[in-house]
Amino acid sequence: MKLIVAIIRPEKLEAVQAALNEHDIYLMTVTDVRGCGRQRGFTELYRGSEFDVRLLPKLKVEIAVNEAFVEAAVESIVHAARTPETGQIGDGKIFVMPLDDCIRIRTGERGSAAIGP
Questions:
Q1: Least confident of 46-60, 77-91, 100-114
Q2: Spatial distance between the Cα atoms of 24 and 76, rounded to a whole number of angstroms
Q3: Burial of residue 1 (number of CB atoms within 10 Å: 0-12, 13-18, 19+)
Q4: Is 44 exposed, middle or buried (0-12, 13-18, 19+ CB in 10 A)?
Q5: Which residues contact 59 (CB under 8 A, 6 or more apart)?
Q6: How confident is the model at residue 70 (pLDDT cuts 50, 70, 90)?
Q7: Of 25, 33, 30, 26, nearest to 13 (Cα)?
Q8: For the stretch 65-96, what's the b/e string if a residue is b when 16 or more beta carbons lie within 10 angstroms of its beta carbon?
């Protein structure tokens, strides 16, 4: 089992969900987050004053998958979240981490069975 954590642009969420659904991956948790990387933010004018916005709004998508779905999930996210053509700074990152255990609270199932439908 693996935990896939993707940091993406907010406007790409629907495309990422649709791409994952094509590979029968439906379960995910989405969180509003703020962060910075190479994009480094931008300067904004507010009521006549200029200020720097360093932390940009992003979405964190967390998906627990069985080994058989890891590559399909990663490829789906990459293709759906990338800006057309060659991509741009700020398109996001994907982290794949081992997942030791998973427990479905409702039934008490553990491991791979708890991730599945």
A1: 46-60
A2: 11
A3: middle
A4: exposed
A5: 7, 8, 9, 10, 12, 13, 30, 31, 32, 33
A6: very high
A7: 30
A8: beeebeebbbebbbebbbeeeeeeebebebeb
Give me 98's structure tokens: 């081992």
The amino acid occupying position 4 is I
pLDDT of residue 41: 64
* Cα(30)–Cα(105) distance, integer angstroms: 20
Structural domains of the chain sorted by starting position, each given as residue range(s) with its CATH number in brackets: 2-100 (3.30.70.120)
Cβ atoms of 62 and 8 within 8 Å: the answer is no
Provide the token pair at 38: 């190479």
At 50, give phi and psi (nearest 5°): -95, 135
Q: What is the pLDDT of residues 6-30, one digit of tens each?
A: 999 999 999 999 999 999 999 999 9
| Beta partners for residue 64, in sequence order | 3
